[in-house]
Every structure is written in structure tokens, then in C-alpha cells.
Design a protein that fits this description.
single chain; 357 residues; six-stranded mixed beta sheet; two-stranded antiparallel sheet; 12 helices; 8 strands; globular
């Protein structure tokens, strides 16, 4: 898989992880990938290459909450199993897997670095003018962190040789701060970025002249749904797939929190109330959640004595099987049963259904 040769100038740092740059990078990924138009059965690989990441605390491909995936806890063993399965699927050593994933975050981070450097040079010039009148005074420098520098000196101790100039300590502080704040940027990628990646995959595997794929579209802008009531907050659909014979409304959540689970029923109720054509529509849940209880509830959720979700889709159900292993947990066994019955589909299986409808 080819990578961009240089980072782009995205203007301000805030735009590096924004929708415009995210989609530019996604298009670049597929343009430079040998798998530019993935088949349904291989599309999950692109989702994982673009979005999956290695947990900073354990070095393993992230499949569950970090604090519960530490050595000694059950999900550390399951994370090891998932990491091993994925490394085999990508045909790389487990130690090399991190270099095969997190593509979108790495490239957006590189663009962020370019923007930060440009902004820093501008700010430094402005700060120099503002501080000119106080040069004779012993003012702290912008961004100075005496405590952090003291910690580094204490830990390195005798291993720290030479007298580091102040500028190098300043650079170290900036790099550490940037590193610690970067993980917060990931929320954009596993939020709206997940929707953008899914849209790109659907367009490439199932798209055609009769298929319209929309991201974060206002519900009332979709065919067959009424205009919102006055003063109502616009209801945006994560992903909408509009075809002559069916409208598919997708809620895409990389992982699921309790508050999000409560939103699903309310969201579906709004869709039902807004529908004006008197025709069925599909309500689909796509996720990379590994928690068995949350997946089980999604599969079993009812609306008027029928499954609320037309399909519940996991990026790769084989990854779930690998993580759960020979489980004795009843909830995990139930989820594995839903996979066997086709209630919980893999992304590949769902894309295949979309392709033939």
C-alpha cells in the first residue's frame, strides 16, 4: 500500500482532522492502494487499515476498553488473540502489525504537524515583538514547563550527558504535549471518520448510477421523509444509502456507550414518524464493538414485536470469534450464536447483500 510522499498544508491545525482533509486522505488511500475498488469480501481490511489502531498502553490492536485490556485482566488475553488473528490475516509478524493499521490517523497527524510548525513560527514572531519591552526582565518563555523538564532530568540522571540548550528542552516539551493531546483527535476518526470510511467503501463495492450514498444527511432531505417541525433540531443520519427499491438508514458507531444505546430507539422512532411514502426502509447498525452484552442487546432490540435493526453488522465477525475463543461466557456464546444464525453479519456479508439488492 503506497503512502503519501509528503504532508499537505491544511491551513490551521484544527482542519487537519476535519471532514475535508479526512475525505481527501481517504480518497488518496484508495487512489494509491492496489485495492482501489475493494470487493465486498476484502473491504473490512481497508476499514481496519484506515481506522484501527494499536493501544498505547499494551501495544495491541485495540478491540476493547484500554483499562480493561491490561495484563492480568480477561480482555488482555482476548486482545492478544485478536491481535494474533489480525496479524495472520495481514500476513505480518505480531510486532509489525501496528505499521499496517492506523493509516488515516498517521497521515492526519503529519498534516497537523505541518500546520503547527507554520502557526508556531507566526506566533513566535508576534510574541517576540510583545516581549521586547521586557527582555531585561526574567520572564518565563511561552510554553515553558519547568516541572516536566525536571522529571526528565531526574529519570535520566547520569544517562543524560552534555548540557542541553534551552531551545532543545523547549522542543521536548512541545513534542510531549503534542503527543499527549493527539489521542483526543482520534475521536473524530472513530466518530465522523468511521462514517466517511464506510461511505467510501459502500460507494466502491456497491455504488452505481442508481445508488446514492450520503453522509450526515438531514433526515428530511432524504426521499420519502417529511420536513422537520418548526424549532426541531435537524436529525442527521450517519449514513444513508438510497436505491430505487430501498432506503437504508445506517447508524455507524465504532464502539457503543450506554447513552448511545438509549439513542437508538429514539432515533428509530423519529425515522418512523418522519416517513411519508408509506414504504419500508431499513435501519442498520454498523459497529466494531467487541463487548458481547452490547452486541447481544443490539441484536435483540425490538420495535413493535419485530427486530428494530434490519441488520446488525460487525466489521469482521471472525475477529470476534478469535477474541472470544473457547469461551464459557453465556453472553459471548449467545453472540456467537447470532453470528451462526446470520443475525449478526460481517461487513463483507452486508455489502454483498447491498450489491445484489
Amino acid at each position: 500500500m503506497a503512502a503519501p510522499q509528503q504532508s499537505a498544508d491544511v491551513g490551521s491545525p484544527a482542519k487537519a482532522f476535519g471532514a475535508v482533509n479526512r475525505n481527501r486522505l481517504i480518497e488518496l488511500y484508495f487512489a494509491e492502494s492496489a485495492n482501489g475498488r475493494p470487493a465486498a469480501e476484502t473491504a473490512w481490511r481497508d476499514v481496519y487499515r484506515l481506522l484501527l489502531w494499536a493501544d498505547q498502553t499494551n501495544g495491541l490492536a485495540h478491540c476493547y476498553e484500554s483499562d480493561k485490556s491490561q495484563p492480568g485482566r480477561n480482555w488482555y488475553g482476548r486482545s492478544l488473540a485478536f491481535h494474533d488473528w489480525l496479524a495472520q490475516e495481514f500476513n505480518v509478524a505480531p510486532s509489525a502489525l501496528a505499521k499496517q493499521i492506523d493509516w488515516l490517523f498517521i497521515k492526519a497527524t503529519a498534516d497537523l504537524a505541518v500546520a503547527i510548525v507554520k502557526r508556531a513560527s507566526r506566533i513566535e514572531a508576534l510574541a517576540k515583538k510583545q516581549r521586547a519591552a521586557y527582555e531585561a526582565r526574567d520572564f518565563p518563555r511561552p510554553g515553558e514547563d519547568v516541572e516536566l523538564v525536571a522529571i526528565v532530568k531526574e529519570v535520566l540522571g547520569d544517562h543524560l550527558s552534555g548540557d542541553f540548550p534551552q531551545e532543545r528542552w523547549q522542543l521536548l516539551v512541545q513534542r510531549v504535549r503534542q503527543y499527549l493531546t493527539l489521542e483526543n483527535k482520534r475521536k473524530n476518526l472513530v466518530g465522523e471518520g468511521f462514517e466517511d470510511v464506510l461511505a467510501a467503501v459502500v460507494r466502491r463495492t456497491c455504488g452505481g448510477n442508481s445508488t446514492d450514498v450520503r453522509v450526515r444527511s438531514v433526515l428530511q432531505d432524504l426521499p420519502g421523509f417529511s420536513r422537520e417541525r418548526r424549532h426541531d433540531k435537524p436529525n442527521k443520519v450517519d449514513l444513508a444509502i438510497v436505491r430505487p427499491g430501498m432506503r437504508t438508514l445506517v447508524t455507524a458507531k465504532w464502539s457503543v456507550r450506554a447513552d448511545r444505546e438509549k439513542q437508538f430507539a429514539a432515533e428509530f422512532g423519529e425515522y418512523v414518524q418522519a416517513e411519508t411514502d408509506g414504504r419500508p426502509f431499513e435501519y442498520v447498525f454498523v459497529t466494531n464493538e467487541f463487548d458481547p452484552a452490547r452486541l447481544m442487546r443490539a441484536c435483540e432490540k425490538l420495535a413493535v414485536n419485530a427486530p428494530m435493526f434490519t441488520h446488525v453488522v460487525h466489521i469482521n465477525t471472525a475477529g470476534l470469534r478469535a477474541a472470544y475463543g473457547e469461551t464459557r461466557d453465556d453472553t459471548m456464546k449467545t453472540v456467537l450464536g447470532y453470528i451462526d444464525k446470520g443475525r449478526l453479519l460481517s461487513l463483507s456479508a452486508w455489502l454483498t447483500l447491498l450489491s445484489v439488492e
